[in-house]
Task: inverse folding
C-alpha cells in the first residue's frame, strides 16, 4: 500500500483498520507488524531557495536526489546523514523522510548539530488521518509548541511525515584531516576533547579503524587558506599526543569521513552492532568496559559504535552510564530479547505513551517499535 | 487583552494556600501581601498588568516540587517566572495565580570542558553562564540582547535567540538536558550530558513551550570554545531593497557570518542621536560580523566587501580594532534603548523568508503611512527575524490600540509571506489571538494535546499561547475529574 500525494496518504491512514508499518527507503532493514505503508511515492522537491538556505521537500524524496540538487548550488545537508545499507545489508534507497524520522546525523554533528537542528518544519498525517503542520520554512520560529523536533526521531510513531523543510548550508570549499596513529582509547578521547575544545572548528572527531589502520582523526573544513591554517595549528597543538599526520588530499579525507559516517569497518565484520550515545569525557571508561570485538568512536567519543558477539547483552555489560544504547544490527531473536531501544525511566515512558495515545489514538503506527 | 475571570473558589482559599506554602518554604519566600505582589504584576510587556494572588521564591527543585504539589491539590494556577523580561506577556500573572519565580536558583552545578557542557540552576542569568566558563576559553552561544537580565529558565521557555544565532543556533540547538517539575510535583530528568535523545525528543518540545508543560529547575547547556577573534564590517546603502539583496548574495556566496544585523533610516537616526556611534545617515545599514584568526577574518571580510561593492554601498567601514568593533556594535546594541528615549514603542518579532526582505520592508512602509504611525526597523537579517518597532504615544487615548492593530497586520503579513508570527519572543498573551492566522484548528489541537499529557488540568501558565476559545473547554475541566 502506498501513496503519491499527501491527500492519498491521509486517506490510507484514515481508512486503515489495523496496524501500519511505515516505510521510507527501508534501508535500515527494520521490519514489523502491520500492512506496509510506503511513503517513497510521495517524492520531489517543492521549494529550493539557495539564497535563503532553505529546502522544502516531500518525505519520500531520495537523499541522493536532494544532495545532487544542492551540490549544483554549492550547498549541502550539513548534518551528513549516514547510508545504513552497508551496516544493515538491506537494499532500498535512503529517503529524506527516513533520515528525519530517525534523526540520522553523521560526524559533523559535533560542529553543526543533529538532523533535528536543521529541521525547520514538518507536515505529517496523524493517527486519524488529519494533515498537521508545524514549524515552517524560516530559520527562526517559536510560534506555538515545537512539534518539529518531537516528530524528528519519532520513527513514524507519532505521525507519518509527508513533507519536511530543512536548513541547508554552503558546501565547504576545502577539507583536510589530521591523524594520529598509535593512541590507546583513553589517549584518543583526551586528544579529541582537546581538539574539540580548540577554536579551530573541528567538524569531525573519530577514533577507530578509519583509514585502513587504527587512528584518531580530526576533520577541518572551509575556505582553502583557512583549512590550511587551522590544520597547521591543530597539528602543532596535537603534537603532545603523538606523531601527527596531515591528510590534505580532499578526496582521501572525504573517504575517511564517509567510512566513519557509514560505520564501514563493521560492514563485513560478523557480529551484532550497537550504538551508544554518551557523555564524551566518559567515553574512554565506558568503551573499555564494553567487551566489544571492535569499536568506532565518533563525535569525540559521545557516540560509540560497538561490534560484539552475536546475542551479547551489551546493556548489561555497560551497567549504568549517562546516555543510552541502541541495538542496531542483530538477528530477530536477539532484537526481541534485548530490545532495540534503551528502556526508558518510568516517568518518561508514561509521558511518551501519553503522547502516542494522543497523536495516534488507535495505536496503529509502527506498534511496538519505540515502546 | 481578554483574560479568563479569576476563579472565586481559588481566591477564597488564599489563607489556606499561604498556610500550606509556609509549611514548605521559609517566610521570606512566600509573598502574599498585595503591596508586595505588585512587583510581579507584569513582565517587559508592560502594557498589561495584573498582580498575582501569591508569589513564591523557592530555592531548590524539592521546594519547587512541594509548591507545585500543593497548587495541584488545591487547583491553583501557576505562572512560572525567570527574570520577567518577556516581551510577549509570557510571565503575565492572573489574579488567581501563584507566580513561581526561580530567581533564587542560580548556582553553577557542574562544568565539564572535556564534554563541553555546563549544568546550572535555571534562574541563572544568560550572561553569567558565559561568565562561569570564559576563563577556560568557552562561552554559551545564544545571546539575547537582554542577556544581562534574562534567565536560562525564560530562555528555555521561549527558545530565545540572539544576534549570533545565524551561526550557533538558538536555545534549542544548545540545550542538552533539563530537570523539570511537572504540575503534580513529579520531578523528571530529560536528556543530559549526552548528545541525542533516547526515545522521543521531549526536550525539543519542552524548549519553547512557554512555561506551560513544567517548571524547569536545572539545565545542561552546550558550551563552545571561544573563536580566536571576531570583527564586524558596517555597510550603508541608499535603499533597503539593495541592502536586502546584499544579504542574500552574502549567504549564497558560501560565507557564513556569525551575525548580519539590519537597521533602517528611522532607527539609524534615533540611535545616532542617542548613542553617537558615528553611523552614516543613509536608508539602510548592515552590520556583518565574522570570526576566526586574523587572517581568516581578513579573508572573509574581503569576500563580503567584494559582494557589497557590487551593490554600490554609500559607506563601507571595516573595523580595524577592538574599539572600532565596539563602536560599530554600539548603535545596534542601544537601538531599543534609543527608541525608548524618543517614543513609546511596541517591538514586533515576526520572521519572513530572507528573500522576501525588501518586499516586506516596502509593505511595512505602506502600512505605516496608512496607519499614520512611524515604524523603525532593526532586525537579524541573516535569518529573516524582523523587529519592526511601532512608535506611538501611550498618553494619547486609543493610540496603543491603534498601534496593536498595525502590529497585528504586520505579523499577519509575515505569515502570508511564508514566515511566522514570532521568531524569538514567543506567543505569550500578545500573539495568542493571531494563532489561527498561522495554524489550522487541527494544528493547534495537536499542540494542545502535548499540554493535555503533561499538565492535564491546564494549571500551568494558562490562557497563553492558544486562543481562549480553543482552550476554554480544557481549562474548564475540574481537577477532580482528571
Ligand atoms: C530589552 C530586551 C531585549 C530582548 N532581546 C531579546 C533577544 O535578542 N532575543 C530573544 O529571544 N529575546 C529577547 N528578549 C525577550 C526576553 O528577554 C526573552 O524572552 C527571555 O528569554 C525571557 O527570559 P526571562 O528569564 O526574563 O523570562 P520571563 O520573562 O520571566 O518568562 C518568560 C517565559 O518563560 C516562562 N518561564 C520562566 N521561568 C520558567 C521555568 N523555570 N520553567 C518553565 N517556564 C518558565 C514564563 O512562564 C514565561 O512564559 C528581550 C527582552 C528585552 C526586555
Result:
Amino acid at each position: 500500500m502506498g501513496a503519491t500525494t499527501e491527500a492519498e496518504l491521509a486517506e490510507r491512514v484514515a481508512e486503515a483498520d489495523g496496524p501500519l508499518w511505515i516505510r521510507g527507503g527501508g534501508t535500515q532493514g527494520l521490519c514489523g507488524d502491520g500492512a506496509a505503508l510506503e511513503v517513497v511515492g510521495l517524492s520531489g522537491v517543492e521549494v529550493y531557495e539557495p539564497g535563503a538556505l532553505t529546502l522544502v521537500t516531500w518525505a519520500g524524496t531520495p537523499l541522493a536526489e536532494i544532495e545532487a540538487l544542492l551540490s549544483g548550488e554549492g550547498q549541502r545537508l550539513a548534518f551528513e546523514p549516514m547510508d545504513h545499507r552497508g551496516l544493515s545489508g538491506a537494499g532500498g534507497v535512503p529517503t529524506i523522510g527516513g533520515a528525519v524520522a530517525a534523526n540520522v546525523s553523521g560526524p559533523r554533528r559535533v560542529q553543526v548539530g543533529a538532523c533535528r537542528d536543521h529541521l525547520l518544519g514538518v507536515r505529517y498525517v496523524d493517527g486519524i488521518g488529519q494533515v498537521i503542520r508545524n514549524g515552517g520554512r524560516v530559520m527562526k520560529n517559536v510560534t506555538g509548541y515545537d512539534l518539529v523536533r518531537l516528530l524528528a526521531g519519532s520513527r513514524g510513531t507519532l505521525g507519518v511525515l509527508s513533507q519536511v523543510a530543512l536548513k541547508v548550508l554552503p558546501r565547504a570549499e576545502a577539507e583536510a584531516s589530521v591523524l594520529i596513529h598509535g593512541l590507546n582509547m583513553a589517549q584518543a578521547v583526551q586528544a579529541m576533547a582537546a581538539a574539540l575544545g580548540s577554536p579551530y572548528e573541528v567538524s569531525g572527531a573519530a577514533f577507530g579503524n578509519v583509514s585502513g589502520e587504527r587512528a584518531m582523526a580530526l576533520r577541518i573544513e572551509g575556505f582553502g587558506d583557512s583549512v590550511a591554517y587551522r590544520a597547521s595549528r591543530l597539528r602543532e597543538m596535537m603534537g603532545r599526543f603523538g606523531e601527527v599526520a596531515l591528510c590534505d588530499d580532499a578526496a582521501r579525507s572525504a573517504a575517511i569521513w564517509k567510512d566513519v559516517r557509514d560505520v564501514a569497518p563493521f560492514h563485513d565484520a560478523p557480529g551484532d552492532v550497537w550504538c551508544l550515545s554518551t557523555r564524551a569525557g566518559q567515553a574512554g571508561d565506558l568503551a573499555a568496559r564494553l567487551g566489544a570485538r571492535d569499536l568506532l568512536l565518533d563525535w569525540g567519543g559521545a557516540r560509540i559504535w560497538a561490534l560484539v558477539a552475536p546475542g551479547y547483552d551489551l546493556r548489561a555489560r555497560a551497567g549504568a552510564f549517562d546516555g543510552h544504547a541502541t541495538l542496531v544490527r542483530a538477528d530477530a531473536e536477539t532484537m526481541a530479547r534485548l530490545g532495540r531501544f534503551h528502556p526508558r525511566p518510568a516517568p518518561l515512558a508514561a509521558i511518551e505513551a501519553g503522547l502516542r495515545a494522543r497523536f495516534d489514538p488507535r495505536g496503529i503506527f509502527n506498534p511496538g517499535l519505540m515502546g | 487583552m481578554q483574560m479568563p475571570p479569576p476563579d472565586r473558589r481559588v481566591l477564597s482559599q488564599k489563607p489556606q494556600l499561604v498556610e500550606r506554602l509556609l509549611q514548605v518554604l521559609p517566610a521570606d519566600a512566600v509573598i502574599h501581601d498585595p503591596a508586595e505582589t505588585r512587583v510581579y504584576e507584569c513582565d517587559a510587556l508592560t502594557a498589561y498588568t495584573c498582580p498575582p494572588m501569591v508569589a513564591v521564591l523557592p530555592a531548590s527543585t524539592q521546594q519547587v516540587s512541594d509548591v507545585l504539589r500543593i497548587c495541584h491539590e488545591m487547583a491553583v494556577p501557576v505562572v512560572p517566572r525567570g527574570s520577567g523580561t518577556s516581551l510577549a506577556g509570557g510571565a503575565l500573572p492572573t489574579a488567581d495565580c501563584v507566580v513561581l519565580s526561580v530567581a533564587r536558583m542560580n548556582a553553577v552545578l557542574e562544568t565539564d570542558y572535556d564534554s563541553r557542557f555546563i549544568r546550572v540552576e535555571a534562574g541563572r542569568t544568560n550572561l553569567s553562564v558565559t561568565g562561569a566558563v570564559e576563563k577556560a576559553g568557552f562561552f554559551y552561544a545564544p545571546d539575547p540582547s537582554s542577556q544581562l537580565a534574562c534567565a536560562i529558565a525564560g530562555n528555555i521557555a521561549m527558545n530565545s535567540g540572539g544576534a549570533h544565532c545565524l551561526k550557533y543556533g538558538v536555545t534549542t540547538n544548545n540545550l542538552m538536558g533539563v530537570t523539570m517539575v511537572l504540575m503534580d510535583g513529579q520531578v523528571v530528568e530529560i536528556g543530559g550530558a549526552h548528545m541525542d535523545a533516547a526515545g522521543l525528543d521531549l526536550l525539543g518540545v519542552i524548549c519553547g513551550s512557554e512555561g506551560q508543560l513544567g517548571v524547569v529547575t536545572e539545565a545542561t547547556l552546550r558550551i563552545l570554545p571561544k573563536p580566536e577573534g571576531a570583527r564586524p564590517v558596517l555597510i550603508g546603502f541608499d535603499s533597503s531593497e539593495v541592502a536586502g539583496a546584499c544579504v542574500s548574495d552574502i549567504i549564497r556566496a558560501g560565507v557564513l557570518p556569525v551575525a548580519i544585523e539590519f537597521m533602517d533610516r528611522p532607527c539609524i537616526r534615533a540611535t545616532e542621536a542617542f548613542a553617537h556611534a558615528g553611523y552614516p545617515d543613509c536608508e539602510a545599514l548592515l552590520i556583518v560580523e565574522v570570526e576566526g584568526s586574523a587572517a581568516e577574518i581578513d579573508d572573509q571580510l574581503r569576500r563580503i566587501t567584494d559582494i557589497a561593492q557590487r551593490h554600490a554601498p554609500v559607506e563601507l567601514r571595516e573595523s580595524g580594532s577592538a574599539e572600532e568593533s565596539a563602536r560599530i556594535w554600539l548603535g545596534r546594541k542601544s537601538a531599543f534603548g534609543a527608541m525608548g528615549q524618543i517614543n513609546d514603542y511596541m517591538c514586533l518579532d515576526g520572521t519572513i523568508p530572507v528573500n522576501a526582505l525588501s518586499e516586506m520592508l516596502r509593505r511595512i512602509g505602506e502600512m505605516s503611512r496608512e496607519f499614520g504611525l512611524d515604524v523603525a526597523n532593526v532586525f537579524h537579517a541573516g535569518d529573516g527575524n524582523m523587529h519592526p518597532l511601532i512608535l506611538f504615544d501611550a498618553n494619547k487615548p486609543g493610540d496603543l490600540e491603534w498601534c496593536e492593530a498595525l502590529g497585528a497586520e504586520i505579523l499577519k503579513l509575515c505569515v502570508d509571506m511564508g514566515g511566522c508570527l514570532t521568531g524569538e519572543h514567543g506567543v505569550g498573551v500578545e500573539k495568542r489571538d493571531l494563532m489561527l492566522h498561522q495554524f489550522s484548528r487541527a494544528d493547534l489541537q495537536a499542540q494542545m494535546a502535548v499540554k493535555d499529557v503533561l499538565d492535564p488540568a491546564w494549571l500551568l501558565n494558562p490562557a497563553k499561547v492558544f486562543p481562549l476559545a480553543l482552550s476554554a473547554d480544557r481549562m474548564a475541566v475540574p481537577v477532580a475529574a482528571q
Q: What stands out?
A: Chain A is about 30% helix and 25% strand. Residues 269 and 307 of chain A are 8 Å apart (CA to CA).
